[in-house]
Write a structure and sequence with these properties.
2 domains, rod-shaped, 78% helix
Length: 156
């Protein structure tokens, strides 16, 4: 921490709040000349004023001293950007899985219908055809689920 960077930070934080040097001085019970000296790096604020200044600017002491640059708005924005990127990644994964389910279930459906036809041609009625039709129902359920996912994935 050097006087120049701290002075620049105090000036920027004060202006961000819309305060004059005199208003900041009144809040800290010092003169406006002292604030001017801090901002122009002629002197540093007394150590006993660091925490009250950080509190006034609604930042941590570390951030006030320039040792940490994670202001709340910045952190929220960064998390929001990560959240958007994660959301898009999940949407792509959902879409890919849904299309894969549709392709696999369509192939499976045709294989099951073919098997059912072969069972009929060979006179194998009863349990083989019942099981095949049950698997066709399951395949339809998988396909329906995939279509539902594709439709509702857009709403995420």
């Amino acid at each position: 921490m050097d006087a120049q960077s701290l002075g620049t930070r105090i000036s920027a934080l004060r202006k961000e709040k819309g305060w004059t040097q005199k208003e900041l001085a009144a809040r800290l019970h010092v003169t406006d000349k002292a604030v001017s000296k801090w901002e122009t790096a002629i002197s540093l604020p007394d150590v006993s004023l660091w925490q009250p200044m950080a509190n006034l600017f609604q930042i941590s002491l570390l951030e006030f001293l320039g040792m940490e640059d994670t202001r709340t708005e910045t952190a929220v924005h960064e998390v929001s950007e990560i959240s958007k990127a994660e959301k898009e990644k999940l949407k792509r994964e959902f879409r890919a899985r849904a299309w894969l389910n549709i392709v696999v279930s369509t192939v499976l459906l045709f294989a099951l219908l073919g098997a059912s036809y072969l069972f009929q041609q060979n006179g194998m009625y009863g349990l083989p055809q019942v099981l095949t039709m049950g698997m066709v129902g399951m395949t339809a359920l998988i396909t329906g689920n995939a279509v539902y996912t594709l439709i509702h994935c857009k709403k995420l």
